[in-house]
Design brief:
The protein is an alpha/beta fold. It folds into 2 domains: about 5-205, 2-enoyl-CoA Hydratase, Chain A, domain 1, CATH 3.90.226; about 205-245, no CATH class. Helix content is about 40%, strand content about 15%. The chain contains 9 helices and 10 strands. The protein has helices at about 30-45, 100-105, 125, 140-150, 155-160, 175-185, 190-205, 210-225, 225-240, and strands at about 5-10, 15-20, 50-55, 60, 90-95, 95-100, 110-115, 120, 155, 170. It has a 6-stranded mixed sheet, sandwiched between helices. The longest helix is centred in the N-terminal third of the chain and has 16 residues, at about 30-45. The two termini are about 40 Å apart. The model has no long low-confidence stretch (mean pLDDT about 90).
């Protein structure tokens, strides 16, 4: 089976590609796990900038795969929510970007869109929403964010550019090339400065309820997965003094 997400590294630029073009790059549990792994790999690598894209030009991603069971938890694999990503991330979008896929782009630092890109959040029409999209209201004008969320109608690449959701609009098929050109410029900049500026900007942007909850869950998950947690349980059961190690 083809890899659900492809990670490629070249000249300190990581390209992370959702690789399900036969399903319009829809997100199933395999994609979810692979994207989370990709961000961890990017964090641990010598790559300085990453590009997030979808295979082909018909869709960046159609969002949740309707044939995939369970509820997607975008906070676990969107860059910068559960998994902190301090290095720059550029979205390269062609074709449809629907539902949860829009939240992935929302969490990226820059966005290059092909002329055929269409952004839509139709969750109100289908009776489901994860809530991470709420943060869109502080990233673009409030009324435009509400239009996307409440009406569920597509927004074109040009309109997305006009309201500040997209940095560049390029011909179809050129979106990754343009994103790579932007990344190549940042590769030669001071990494510590880029990280500091991203950190300060992220601290300045208000967090939505799901992002705030995710931060708390991330800390509790770390605690419940720690050796100290296991030691605490074992020492209580054995009626002895706990020997905590801070790990």
């Amino acid at each position: 089976m083809d890899e659900p997400v492809i990670y490629e590294s070249h000249e300190h630029i990581a390209q992370i590609t959702i690789n399900r073009p036969h399903r319009m790059n829809a997100i199933d549990d395999h994609v979810e796990a692979a994207l989370a792994d990709a961000w961890r790999r990017f964090n641990a690598s010598d790559d300085l900038v990453s590009i997030l894209t979808g295979a082909g030009d018909k869709a960046f991603s159609a969002g949740k795969d309707r044939e995939s069971p369970g509820v997607p938890e975008y906070r676990k694999f969107a860059p910068g929510v559960d998994i902190t990503v301090e290095k720059p991330v550029i979205a390269a979008v062609a074709g449809w970007c629907i539902g949860g896929a829009l939240t992935l782009v929302q969490m990226c630092d820059l966005c290059v869109a092909a002329e055929n890109a269409k952004f839509a959040y139709p969750e109100a029409k289908i009776g489901f929403a994860g809530g991470l999209i709420g943060s869109l209201a502080v990233r673009i004008p409030h009324k435009i964010a509400m239009e996307l969320m409440l009406l569920g109608e597509p927004v074109t690449a040009e309109r997305a550019y006009q309201v500040g959701f997209v940095n560049r609009v390029v011909p179809v098929g050129e979106q990754v090339k343009e994103a790579r050109a932007l990344a190549a410029k940042m590769v030669h900049h001071a990494p510590l400065v880029l990280r500091m500026l991203k950190q300060f900007a992220n601290a300045t942007v208000p967090k939505g309820p799901v992002e705030l909850a995710s931060q708390a869950l991330r800390e509790t998950d770390r605690l419940f997965g720690s050796a100290d947690y296991r030691e605490g349980k074992e020492s209580f059961a054995q009626k002895r003094e706990a020997k905590f190690r801070g790990a």
